Amino acid sequence: MNSNGIIIAIDGPAGAGKSSVAKLLSEKLGYRYIDTGAMYRSVALVALHQQVNLTDEGALGVIAKNFKFEFKNYLNQLQVWVNDEDVTSKIRTPEVTAASFYSANALSVRTALVELQRKMALESCQLFGGAILEGRDTGTIVYPQAQYKFFLNATVEKRAERRLKDMLKAGMAEKLDVIIQQIKARDEKDYQREYGGLKKTEDYILMDHTMLTVDESAHAIYQYILEHPR
Ligand code: DC
User: Fold this and answer.
1) Which of 45, 130, 168, 185 sits between 20 and 30 A of 157, alpha carbons compared?
2) Which residue CA neighbors atom 6 of ligand 1 most closely?
3) Number of domains making up the chain
4) Residue numbers of the domain that contains 220
5) Among 35, 69, 111, 136, which is best to mutate for testing ligand 1, by the most ligand atoms less than 8 A from CB?
6) For ligand 1, is residue 137 a contact (CB within 6 Å)?
7) The overall pTM is greater than 0.70
8) What does the alpha-carbon distance between residue 133 and residue 136 come to, in Å, rounded to a whole number?
């Protein structure tokens, strides 16, 4: 598929700072930010609302094929809308996070969402000259021919520390070693997913952000793009 624009794929494990990097790039470059994780979360949210059995792949696929999904930009914040409802915060609850493992594992869901992600990226390319795709498989499955593919990583401990900070800010409390275990469990699921699993192929630009703040990481990647025009 020819995008006729610049596609930037940002992949990596949970908590590596991908969304902060994608947001900053979207602001600086004017391309749309396509948060693919939000799409798997949204299918999970609808499935929970409709009390669909999460192991029923067919039913999850029907949701992914038929729901109305939109990203909206409001006061510089990315909002997620599903069937004309703002679900931005609803898709971030622990219940939806857990349910999203099922939607992410369903091939029917992945097929429908990958098609939608490509369509959104093409539209952003036509309107703004490029698109930023962020997730796990955006540089391997969604757009293998992306001009830039970044694989963001940081140690489990560092990712857990960042997660704890975010939770404390949101008024939630948790123990660091519990979060470390949760992140390890998520990594295992992400790397071992049968379809669309997290895979670092050789053409990724590896960015290890253990020693950088999220802002520093985002600026390092922006700088890389400026210095390596494609
Ligand atoms: O990045 P996140 O935590 O918002 O992702 C939510 C879920 O979707 C998580 O289980 C990983 C999965 N996911 C995926 O399988 N493929 C993607 N491209 C993005 C997310």
Assistant:
1) 45
2) 37
3) 1
4) 6-227
5) 136
6) yes
7) yes
8) 10
